[in-house]
Design brief:
Layout lengths: L1 H18 L6 H12 L2 H18 L1
Keywords: Membrane, Transmembrane, Transmembrane helix
């Protein structure tokens, strides 16, 4: 499960990098939104990523 979560976010980052070719800095806008508002979906995604990683170490 951990692999698929990481793969999903890696593909998202590749997609954002492709969008960065245009004149609007999409990744910077999304990053600023996350820093200012800390949306629940972002915290849940980080918790899922690290929780699935912790279960492997035990």
């Amino acid at each position: 499960m951990n692999f698929f979560i990481r793969l999903k976010y890696a593909l998202l980052m590749i997609f954002l990098a492709i969008l960065e070719i245009g004149p609007i800095p999409i990744a910077a806008i999304i990053g600023l939104f996350i820093v200012i508002f800390l949306p629940r979906w972002f915290k849940d995604a980080i918790d899922r990523m690290y929780h699935s990683n912790d279960s492997r170490k035990k």
